[in-house]
Amino acid sequence: MANNYIAITLKIFSVIFFVLMDVLIKKLSADFNTFQIVFFRCFFGIFPVLIMMYFTNSTPKTNKINLHLLRAVIACLAMFCFFRAFGILPLADVSSISFASIMIITILAIFILKEKVGIRRWLAIFFGFIGVLIIFRPGTSLFSLYSIYPLIGAFALSFAVIIMKKLLSYDTPPTCSFYLHAFVSLFYLPILIFNWQQPTLNLWLLLIAMGFCGGIAQILLTNAYKISTVNLLQPFDYTAIIWAITFGIIFFNDYPDKYVIIGSIVIVISTYYIIYRENKLGKKINTLKVNQRQI
What we know:
- This protein is mainly alpha-helical.
- The chain has one domain (2-288).
- It contains twelve helices and no strands.
- The radius of gyration is 18 Å and the shape is globular.
- The two termini are 29 Å apart.
């Protein structure tokens, strides 16, 4: 029982650190292009990952380097889209839409992992996407091409998570995280060199804090799932929306309207039902159907 309380505490703090990272991304978007932000997110984020590898006795040794490369390529697209979205849209909007990845992973699992999905989960997927449409409001003046960024990010993220499912059969989570950070940094390095924007001291501190927030959040998340179960911890993923709304109001004066709140509720109910059904049916892939935006 004590372990469960510790795991819940670690999980909640991991969500808070992820949302704080989002706040820093949004703040830094006013001074840097998205490529530079993604690079420093992964470059500085790798240091906490190395600490995690040391304490878990993980090594960079792998026989699946090609899969790690493929996952990193897809992650480059996912991170770019989400980070770009944070620079344009309110935190709550992007955080809510990121949960669409759970529905997309369910669909991809049918075709890639040959998973069988019943009518109840199909209905949950259908209503989940209605929630996305409520937030997007296509056809209104609030809808723009920028609104597509988080949805494209969710699609890319879903492919990356499916690849991670295969990788976890061979490598530890810290090893997978190490290659993700290292490869994404390397991929964005040439773009960074040709589009360099010199940070001030204060901006350097924000860049470092952004990377460390992401890395620390992953350490907390990994340890939470190590000592407890997905069934217990998964509902706390949805507190990300609450924190995103709170921090959005505090730091950016972004007050969510009724459509964002209604759409978020629909998405949360739909994705939670998907997890509930898969837990009840004993499905294994549900361990990956948590909010995996911060890959």
